[in-house]
Amino acid sequence: MNAIDVEHRVVSNGEWLEARKAHLAKEKELTRLRDELSRERRELPWEKVKKNYLFDGPKGRETFADLFDGRSQLIIYHFMFGPEWEEGCPSCSLLADHIDGSVVHLANRDVTLMAVSRAPLARIEPFKKRMGWRFPWVSSHGSDFNRDYHVSFTKDEMAQSRMYYNYAMGEFPSDEGPGVSVFYKDAAGEIFHTYSAYARGGDILIGAYNYLDLAPKGRDEDNLAFTMSWVRHHDRYENGKSANSRCGVGEHA
Fold first, then answer.
1. d(CA 187, CA 118)
2. Which of 74, 103, 211, 231 qualifies as a cystine partner to 183, CB 3.0-4.6 A?
3. What is the SS3 assignment for 219?
4. What is the DSSP string of 116-163?
5. What spatial distance separates the first Cα and last Cα of the chain, rounded to whole Å?
6. Residue-wise pLDDT tens digits, 173-217
7. Which residues have a Cβ under 8 Å from the Cβ of 121 and sit 6 or more positions away?
8. Chain mean position to CA 224
9. Residues 19, 201, 125, CA angle at the centre, nearest 5°?
10. Environment class of residue 180 by beta-carbon count within 10 Å: exposed (0-12), middle (13-18) or buried (19+)?
11. Rounded to an integer, what distance in angstroms lies between the CA atom of residue 122 and that of residue 127?
């Protein structure tokens, strides 16, 4: 018998149902609060994107407007993959494992979903092929895009442990950070930044975490070196390779 068996009471169906209904009331309250929060998010003010960013994609150089792919809404996942890195962050890869299934559905709701990294396309493409992903992924290498959206940090910032991330100054364990940014393009072609989230703001995008939250042990991360230290690239669980420690973003949530 393990610890989880000892900690939990075993009760009759009637007692179980009573406890479950009490918890259901809280779940419904959370759902309503989430709907309200989502409505408020949509009502946030926008800022106009004034820079003409250029990206490297499979088709060559692309403008920011090109990334929308004919749609008015664009969601970008800031995938941690630095210019000198040999592979993408395992934690970001966990999230990215959930992207492909959503792309076609979002496209039919006027939304383009893609990833952007500072790594050159020559590093992104082999890694993307290895992981078996199909979603659009471009390189922002050589542009200010990652800096402007606060997901890449300089050597000086790293040395001083003073980075601006998740809307505050503080330490961060890597020169790249995860996040998600949302943009809107109007009929005149003007682009607006509508929303960005960082750290645990991306939790909602990780379906595996939502499943773990339903399981008896939950995420079971309390005694780990950092919350996502268990994560591996999906092709490396069997050989026991460790997640990259510089991607330990969970402890900075």
1. 29
2. 74
3. coil
4. EESS-HHHHHHHHHHHT--S-EEE-TTSSHHHHTT-B--HHHHHHT-E
5. 33
6. 999 999 999 999 999 999 999 999 999 999 999 999 999 999 999
7. 56, 57, 58, 138, 139, 141
8. 21
9. 125
10. buried
11. 9
